Amino acid sequence: MNPLIVKALPGFIRRLVVVSLCLFLAAGSLDFWEAWLFLPVFFIPNLLVGIYLLRNDPDLLQRRLKGGPSAETRISQKVIILLMGLSSILLMIVSGLDHRFDWSHVPALLVIAADVAILLGLWIQFRVFKANTFASIIVTIVPQQKVISTGPYAVVRHPMYSGVLVVDFFAPIALGSWWGLLFALARLVVIILRLLDEEKLLRQDLSGYEEYCRKVQYRLIPHLW
Asked: Which residues lie closer than 8 Å to 46 by C-beta, 6 or more apart?
């Protein structure tokens, strides 16, 4: 068996189990159709992207398996990664509690529309992987790294985070929860802190990045910021 599969598959399964437990234990029931729809909508595309990278860009997949607070070299990024993970878990738990206590009333059509939006966010992330083989999961500069200005990088400077935020903001709605959006907002704040710190490093150490920033003015949302 390919050693990359041996390394990647346990992490994928662990993430699926953790998210499922957060949702269904908090909901106190398996009668949670929004969660049953959300799980395949989120995890099947992630699995397919992993298979694509395994076949087409194993070096990128290898780098993205080395994430987590311990992999970051800067204290600020270690803290940011911890906060991102915590806010993700709380988003799932609060959405499950919302289902249990019936705090929110999200129409079924809106739930389904949110799942479609999640697929869009995941597709944006996939476009990033296709355009940028240097799309590391940690804030660093790898050997031979160069500025990427094509594909989604021609629109915003941090398209990966744009895709992540689309998923973050529509996940609570897909789970039938308005209260979960509070933790999507928390994720937004943390991601902004992360990308600003990342840009500081890239401006200092990546040749051509300053010029790229002048060419592509928007960080996350075209014509806004």
From this structure: 12, 122
Verdict on whether the full-model pTM lies above 0.85: yes
Cβ neighbors of 216 (< 8 A, separation 6 or more) are: 149, 153, 154, 155, 156, 157
Six-digit token string for 64: 């993205």
At 220, list the tokens: 């996350």
What's the Cα-to-Cα distance from 61 to each of 26, 38, 116, 121, rounded to whole Å?
Answer: 32, 24, 25, 19
What is the four-CA torsion angle of 221, 109, 174, 187, rounded to 10 degrees?
Answer: 30
Model pLDDT for residues 161-204, shown as the tens digit of each residue: 999 999 999 999 999 999 999 999 999 999 999 899 888 888 88
pLDDT digit string, tens, across residues 58-99:
888 888 877 667 666 677 788 888 888 999 999 999 999 999
What are the pLDDT digits (tens) for 100-129?
999 999 999 999 999 999 999 999 999 999
Six-digit token string for 11: 């992490």
Alpha carbon distances (Å) from 10 to 3, 4, 41, 42, 62? 12, 11, 20, 17, 14
E strand or H helix that includes residue 66: none
In the chain, the largest separation of any two C-alpha atoms, in whole Å, equals 53
Percent of the chain at pLDDT > 70 equals 96
* CA pair distance 4, 152, nearest whole angstrom: 27
- Could you give the 3-state DSSP secondary structure of residue 38? helix
Q: What is the pLDDT of residue 39?
A: 97
